[in-house]
Amino acid sequence: MTQRIDDVSFTVDERIWGHRLYDEQLPHLTLLEFLNVLQSNLKNPLLSSPSEKVTYRPQHQIRLRSLLFNNPYVEVVRARSVSDDAKWEAWNELFLQNATGMGDLSFMHLRKAFLSFDDFARSIELLRSSAFEVQSNKRWSSKFVFPFGPDALYEDLRFDAKANASNDRRFFARTGELLYLMLSRATRGSLLGRQLVERLYSDSPMNQLVRALQGETQKAPKERSVGYLPYEQLPRFDRICDDWLAILSRGMPVYDSLDHIISITGLNMLIYFLECGKVTIGDVSPVEIVCEIVSRQRSRVRALSCDSFQENQSLSLRAIKAFVEGVRTTPEWQSALNSDDPSGECLLVMQERFQWPQHGQDDELDLNNLPGEELIRRLLAKAEFRHDQHVGKIHNSWARAIGLGSRRLSRRLRYAPNDRLLKALVVTVVDKQMEFGEFLAKVHARYGLVFGDIEGAHFILENKVDQEALTYNVSNLETRLYGLGLIRRLSDDCAFIENPFNRKGES
């Protein structure tokens, strides 16, 4: 029997993509959740087998996040022309008005850690400036400091009216847990695990500053199990792992590499989402993403990119329909139809395959004696409705989050990679230097990105775009990369992509 998944009323999205991918957990939040899982498995990082249960106990660090994101008083007090002792007393009085009571009622350790209140205030300012989404309107308990080290990691929390904390599944929705499982199942996962532990979990000066604010570590009350990943191995798992290892091998500080890791992981997870959808509907062709390099001159590449975006956007909903209706072709369904009690036996097949309807719940009684086709119709309606709430929005929200999706100079969304994503591609794919045409071929083979006429030849044959438009698009890409300092032209027919970071750390 397929592994049971808790906390869901039926399993359709979960059997295709895992439990769970979520549109509001963007790539940077996915990385943070991944690092929380890794932190609880430092002795055996990324060494789990598909049959092994992975658990972790995340940190809460309520004092740290309170000081950084629920502390509007520090600058006001800092500006007062009073003694240092008076500043500490005034700030403490103001801060306690909104304290949760979850370990943030006493900050005596701050007076020992900082020479003055001004030093304390400057430290708060420094860490806030590096935080993710610090200017967003998210609640303070859902804002995150940059992962400078083990003391800077914590999970998303929600506080109720009585200030009781509980883990929230809105921004830490298990996507980072799935990423941990993917990398664990990659061929070189153990190598990556060792490198991450060695380089990310050191006691750096910034981590020491974080620890000075937090004081004693605050952890979740108990361990929990990670989510469900339906695949023991996929080439995409190896692709993500190899990309991380490539980025970590470049000569840059590890914290600078995290920005590129976030971008390239978001791209790979997006492609995983599309690849699983294609497999489910029986489409064996590779994922393709037609990218326009934005220019003021409108071309047919823009229209083709818009069409490419919309086709991929519709893919997941088609997969939902194919997965539910695919029950018709199973031997179990045919046996049920040929049994003495087809309605009852079809209901049992639905329970086994989709965990629906749940045993003992009202909908199980309502569905008794319904024909098999009606059961399929009802589950499909429920699955499509739920899919539209979050999973169906993943392609759109993730593409925009990593700088791949854009509406610039267009009313329709299309693929138009920004500078940040282009830099991440170069850092990941290019070791020292690579011929421009080879670079285009590699990003097409690895990620399905189409920029020019060679990779997009079949679109020309299908009369969807002309060769001149794609050639012009490649020329625009070359100009963009030149402006970013990532390309060097030797002659009219020879250009090389250059990675500003090589293995020796030379620029």
Describe this structure in words.
It is built from 23 helices and eleven strands. The protein is mainly alpha-helical and about 500 residues long. It has a domain at about 20-225. The strands form five sheets. The chain has a three-stranded antiparallel β-sheet with strand order 8-11-10. Strands 1-4 form a two-stranded antiparallel ribbon. α3 (about 60-70) packs across α10 (about 205-215) and α12 (about 255-280) packs across α14. The longest helix has 28 residues, at about 255-280.
- Note the beta-strand portion: 5-15%
Q: What would you report as the Rg, rounded to the nearest angstrom?
A: 26 Å
Uncertain stretches: 503-507
The gross shape turns out to be globular
By DSSP, the count of extended strands is 11
Q: What profile does the largest beta sheet have?
A: 3 strands, antiparallel
Keywords:
507 residues, mainly alpha, two-stranded antiparallel sheet, 23 helices, 51% helix, disordered C terminus, 3-stranded antiparallel beta sheet
